[in-house]
Amino acid sequence: MVGGGTKRRRRRLQLSKLYTLTCAQACFKQDHSQIGGPGFSRVVYCNEPDSPEADSRNYSDNYVRTTKYTLATFLPKSLFEQFRRVANFYFLVTGVLAFTPLAPYTASSAIVPLLFVIGATMVKEGVEDWRRQKQDNEVNNRKVKVHRGDGSFDAKEWKTLSIGDIVKVEKNEFFPADLVLLSSSYEDAICYVETMNLDGETNLKVKQGLEVTSSLRDEFNFKGFEAFVKCEDPNANLYSFVGTMELKGAKYPLSPQQLLLRDSKLRNTDFIFGAVIFTGHDTKVIQNSTDPPSKRSMIEKKMDKIIYLMFFMVITMAFIGSVIFGVTTRDDLKDGVMKRWYLRPDSSSIFFDPKRAPVAAIYHFLTAVMLYSYFIPISLYVSIEIVKVLQSIFINQDIHMYYEEADKPARARTSNLNEELGQVDTILSDKTGTLTCNSMEFIKCSVAGTAYGRGVTEVEMAMGRRKGGPLVFQSDENDIDMEYSKEAITEESTVKGFNFRDERIMNGNWVTETHADVIQKFFRLLAVCHTVIPEVDEDTEKISYEAESPDEAAFVIAARELGFEFFNRTQTTISVRELDLVSGKRVERLYKVLNVLEFNSTRKRMSVIVQEEDGKLLLLCKGADNVMFERLSKNGREFEEETRDHVNEYADAGLRTLILAYRELDEKEYKVFNERISEAKSSVSADRESLIEEVTEKIEKDLILLGATAVEDKLQNGVPDCIDKLAQAGIKIWVLTGDKMETAINIGFACSLLRQDMKQIIINLETPEIQSLEKTGEKDVIAKASKENVLSQIINGKTQLKYSGGNAFALIIDGKSLAYALDDDIKHIFLELAVSCASVICCRSSPKQKALVTRLVKSGNGKTTLAIGDGANDVGMLQEADIGVGISGVEGMQAVMSSDIAIAQFRYLERLLLVHGHWCYRRISTMICYFFYKNITFGFTLFLYETYTTFSSTPAYNDWFLSLYNVFFSSLPVIALGVFDQDVSARYCLKFPLLYQEGVQNVLFSWRRILGWMFNGFYSAMALAISYFTLIQHIVIWSSIVVWYFFITVYGELPSRISTGAYKVFVEALAPSLSYWLITLFVVVATLMPYFIYSALQMSFFPMYHGMIQWLRYEGQCNDPEYCDIVRQRSIRPTTVGFTARLEAKKRSVRISEPAS
């Protein structure tokens, strides 16, 4: 076994050389001259973290904190959070004044409720932050092997790492800090890194250590190892790094090629050794994040304005009362006659002294402000906190948002933003790991003009469900309709990356097809044209593939499953097992790899030149349709028309397509090409890339078309359905991704954010003018020209929209252009263009750009924004948005730890917003309105009593009646409403997404509605405000009435020194009186009648969305398509994305084409 392992290791070491040429060797550049100057002052003593020189630097440790508070800051910061709420600050002031003789009640009755409210809220905040602390500890306590100094490595926690430590990271582990790569399991010190957590890309990046350290491949090699690194200071730029390493008296340049970033993952490499350069909050990924913000919902902010209004009312009433009191007091003692003898104005020092009436009026004003404080509900905030916590528990316990496969429920990590979930106007989503599963599946192909493959995409399944029928696929050959269900297809699909079903070419049946020779060349190209490395399991002899991208792996797997098995690779050869058309037997063929012309975003294609066993030279090429069709020869276009049609169909089904073509080369032509490509690659001039491109252009032409592949960038289950429902709800969806533009566009089609008839406004800097300028190296000129170019494209886009005639547009912009679009003088024009488009996709976006775009949308339109992502690169975006939703996927917990709510799958966003969001918004809005209504009703009785007592500041009620009214007597029914009330059930919330627009338009918490509740504060509408009675609501409503009578009875029986004015009032005065009970009944009926009348008129003539749905449900018409469409047409925002919009667009195109035919 040892010998076998050594043999396998040597084989892999040799194979790594296949990639060595793709790694740019570091050389000293102009930037390296800045080292030691401002911004480039970092000094690292490798393998000497405890040296005095290293200690004197005081670099940050590797502990990362995402909590809002620390032990030291919890008390002051939490108190600040509580008292920045206007009501709490007001009650603090009145609580302090309660200790003075001015108070109309005892100090304890004012302070105790305030302490209870503040204390309960602080406890809740503390518990939520403690949960964040636990998740921080989970990351900080991860283990990594660290050099002890004697040639051995021990496991240590991430948080204990120091600058200069040498660490050993093994396959599939995350890097614990920013490291300089020293060596790896490959002899040339390369390694493969997955940076999905940073830039969203799933394809692997190749990194390579310096040649001078590449021999350090064993642990004992580091005994006595010393190196000295000088580099740039911590910064947020993920794609740059400048430094030097001094080793054995010589200096070596360091570049991004040697930098391994925290939270990226080691893949396809057994281990690496690295030196810690940046730790903790100095790492680039954390530099891209921001401090956890203190988020407040829009309703809570508006509630502060209502408090200001109420405070103005209190001041007004106190002022009116104090003026009347002053005048009355001045005239209280005339000619020795005391009008209000019971106030003893003759012996009063100030309060009722007729000789000092103005001062008495001022004191009365302060007393009245304290007395009328009951207009403002002290228990409002704590009641809302209680309701939000209980709402969060319901979210956490929702079985429909539980992901059984990963055992992950939804988690509301903060309850402050529940109602915001019902008001989201724009969703900004990451792509990789959020919309997709990070896996590709080969699902269809077109060969020789014939379409093969009956696999079903998520988009097709969603469209089939929308149509209400089974999915039907038609065979081109025998024209037989075949039905496939999702379950049947899923059951058959057992090979990861392969979801292809077609009996015509599977199991070797392709040899009977008309164009069997073309099919053979097609799948042979898939088996040969790639850079994949095969690995054979010695126990099972099964072959697995390690690829730079999931696309590559899917192609090779598809070729294997269809009879062309790639099984071995050396530096210069590829071995394939395939079926021989002549002999009909399975044979092994060896292809000599002469050149690999790699894929990049400019070329949009990849080619290999191989030599067959008989000496024939072939160029095999695959690439995007827009660059491949133009390279076909006149004789190679036999199947072009059919292939184009199939490619368009595949794109409409949300699939990623590549065109496959080939050509034969003669030896003379190849010899000339090989000489020129070698010269170009050896060039050290600035236009080296252009020279290489020029040479490859001449060889990659006159191709013969074979066909096209279609792979599905596997969306998470239910993503198209979810996006369609969110679009119907009037929510705009933006995609912010680090991926290439082509990939993002393909996902846009897969998600139905884009469709074929939607016009695209593409903003990039891939113009000839900018590219030629970039070669000059004059940065200022390039920046100025680029900015002008981007501005021009944005203005042109707005012009297109202006004269579009109502057509849907999509805006697609890359990261380089986005950097200029976000400049202060352009960003608002860019935002105007973006919000006018149906879809917005930002490609190659850095984490910082994601956060800036989110900030622009949030501040620019003033509506609620929600950001959703799963990686560390999404943290800034999640924190910047009004609501941050983290996907608790497989790629670390950084996004979840920085989020407000965590869900396991994107599809759960549908239920989170349309059901829980709508309910929470409605409940909180109604609850707040009712709180102010009941306090106005209660407080106004105090004012009326004041008018009866000539504003003498005598309270109408006992101190504890006043204090407990809000905190105890009247809170439970409102809390029950806030937790349990439903206008419509979850099923109808999902069936009629337009109901969500009530929250987007904020119709339930508009000033009109708020003032309506206030002005109608003279009657009780509690029972009518509830749409959905439960047993709990019945209990709290009726029990609150019982508790009031119980309290007033028991409290009145206490000695008079305790119960004061309440002594036996109910038992001896009220209960025996028939008039008391008659008046109580009359008041209830009289105050309810106006609300009954108003509700009946509104429901009959001016129903809101939920009212219309309640009528449909009541009349049993919820399943009638005609009635449902009538309701949906009431939407304020037309549905322009999603498969529903796609179907409507198809219907329109059919209607337009019918007259023409």
From TrEMBL:
Cofactor needs: Mg(2+)
Keywords: ATP-binding, Magnesium, Membrane, Metal-binding, Nucleotide-binding, Translocase, Transmembrane, Transmembrane helix
Organism classification: Eukaryota, Viridiplantae, Streptophyta, Embryophyta, Tracheophyta
Function: Involved in transport of phospholipids.
Protein name: Phospholipid-transporting ATPase
Localization per Swiss-Prot or TrEMBL: Membrane
Enzyme Commission number(s) from the entry: 7.6.2.1
Protein's organism: Arabidopsis suecica (Swedish thale-cress)
Catalyzed chemical reaction(s): ATP + H2O + phospholipidSide 1 = ADP + phosphate + phospholipidSide 2
Database matches in NCBIfam families: ATPase-Plipid, ATPase_P-type
Catalytic site positions: D430
Amino-acid positions noted as binding Mg(2+) in the UniProt annotation, renumbered to this chain: D430, T432, D870, D874
Domain P-type ATPase C-terminal intervals: 896-1024
Binding positions for ATP per the UniProt entry: D430, K431, T432, E552, F599, K622, R656, T737, G738, D739, R844, K850, N873, D874
One Gene Ontology cellular component annotation held by this UniProt entry: plasma membrane
Keyword Lipid metabolism set for record: no
InterPro entries per the UniProt record, alphabetical: ATPase_P-typ_P_site (IPR018303), P-type_ATPase_IV (IPR006539), P-type_ATPase_N (IPR032631), P_typ_ATPase (IPR001757), P_typ_ATPase_c (IPR032630), P_typ_ATPase_HD_dom (IPR044492)
Bilayer topology term: Multi-pass membrane protein
Domain of life: Eukaryota
Record domain P-type ATPase N-terminal: where: 44-108
Family stated for the protein in its record: Belongs to the cation transport ATPase (P-type) (TC 3.A.3) family. Type IV subfamily.
Keyword check for Lyase: no
Transmembrane stretches, start-end: 86-104, 110-127, 306-328, 361-382, 931-948, 960-980, 1010-1029, 1035-1054, 1074-1094
Gene Ontology molecular function, alphabetical: ATP binding; ATP hydrolysis activity; ATPase-coupled intramembrane lipid transporter activity; magnesium ion binding
Main location: membrane
